[in-house]
């Protein structure tokens, strides 16, 4: 990944350019809160917005994009099919619902939100159809571990272009990252800031002081230097602007490795190998 500025991109396996930095809106409330946060992000130069059906804020995201001066074609917009909607026909219907709420005629990326056993292969076939029909520019998965990916690849006509996973200094999953890289599946981080727990880690405080940056800036830059697309969530304008201040410093390889060595396999969210929703 060549890191340049807030408008920098990675090229997915199918040639689509995906901004490597964006805004996530998990737990951002529908209405004014999500409209404001997306507006703050777009006005600060963000061009990648990540939502999902289960977040129940697609309408606000769509409204913010519609009202902003930024052209829709310049925004990389992601949504995800929820578990209850998985299956072939129900996924196609869920996609239509998301488009309607987001006030758009296409998505840049559509993901299977979780690997629901017995359903995700049919769901993937639906995503392949949406992709073949030109209704989405790229398709991928979220929360898929290596066994899920290996199983999916046995029957898939299209290899997922993205895998969005929990990723932060306490959960690196380097073998999974390596597997995705080998198969040209772009790794993407959710919960990169560990819902604030990064502030409790002494090494991160020490390195942030060394590079004269905030702890979130340090961690988000580490994501990018690991080749991982990152979408930090915030509803505060000052933090949305601050989180994007990643372009005037570079972490040494030695310090990248130090941060990676914090890995303890510790999750903030559910375990994709054992979930029941």
Give a brief outline of the structure.
The chain is an alpha/beta fold. Helices cover 38% and strands 13% of the residues.
Features:
TIM Barrel, alpha/beta, Aldo/keto reductase, single chain, oxidoreductase activity, acting on the CH-OH group of donors, NAD or NADP as acceptor, two-stranded antiparallel sheet, NADP
Give an account of the 3D structure.
This protein has 277 residues and is α/β, with parallel strands linked by helices. It has a single domain, classed as NADP-dependent oxidoreductase domain (TIM Barrel), CATH 3.20.20. The protein has helices at residues 32-43, 58-67, 88-102, 120-132, 146-155, 174-182, 202-211, 215-225, 237-243, 253-260; strands at 9-11, 17-19, 23-24, 48-50, 76-81, 109-112, 139-142, 162-166, 186-190, 229-230. An eight-stranded parallel β-sheet has the order 3-4-5-6-7-8-9-10. It has a two-stranded antiparallel ribbon with strand order 1-2. Helix 2 (58-67) crosses helix 3 (88-102) and helix 3 (88-102) crosses helix 4. The protein starts with 8 loop residues before the first strand and ends in a 17-residue tail after the last helix. The relative contact order is 0.14. The model has no long low-confidence stretch (mean pLDDT 98). GO terms for molecular function: oxidoreductase activity, acting on the CH-OH group of donors, NAD or NADP as acceptor. This is Aldo/keto reductase. The active site is at residue 55. The record marks 80 as: Lowers pKa of active site Tyr. Belongs to the aldo/keto reductase family.
């Amino acid at each position: 990944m060549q890191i340049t500025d807030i408008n920098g991109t990675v090229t997915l396996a199918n040639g689509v350019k995906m901004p490597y930095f964006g805004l996530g809106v998990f737990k951002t409330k529908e209405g004014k809160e999500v409209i404001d946060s997306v507006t703050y992000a777009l006005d600060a130069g963000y061009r990648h917005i990540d939502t999902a059906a289960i977040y129940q804020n697609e309408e606000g995201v769509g409204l913010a994009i519609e009202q902003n001066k930024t052209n829709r074609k310049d925004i990389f917009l992601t949504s995800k099919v929820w578990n209850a909607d998985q299956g072939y026909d129900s996924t196609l219907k869920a996609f239509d619902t998301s488009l309607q709420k987001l006030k758009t005629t296409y998505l840049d990326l559509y993901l299977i939100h979780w690997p629901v056993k017995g359903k995700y292969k049919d769901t993937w076939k639906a995503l392949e159809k949406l992709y073949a029909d030109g209704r989405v520019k790229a398709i991928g998965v979220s929360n898929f571990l290596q066994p899920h990916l290996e199983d999916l690849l046995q029957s898939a006509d299209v290899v997922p272009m993205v895998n969005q996973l929990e990723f932060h200094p306490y959960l690196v999953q380097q073998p999974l990252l390596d597997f995705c890289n080998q198969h040209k599946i772009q790794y993407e981080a959710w919960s990169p800031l560990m819902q604030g727990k990064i502030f409790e880690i002494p090494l991160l405080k020490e390195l942030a002081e060394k590079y004269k940056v905030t702890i979130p800036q340090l961690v988000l830059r580490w994501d990018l230097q690991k080749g991982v697309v990152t979408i930090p969530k915030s509803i505060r304008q000052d933090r949305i602007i601050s989180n994007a201040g990643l372009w005037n410093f570079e972490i040494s390889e030695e310090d990248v490795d130090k941060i990676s060595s914090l890995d303890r396999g510790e999750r903030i969210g559910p375990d994709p190998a054992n979930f029941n929703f």
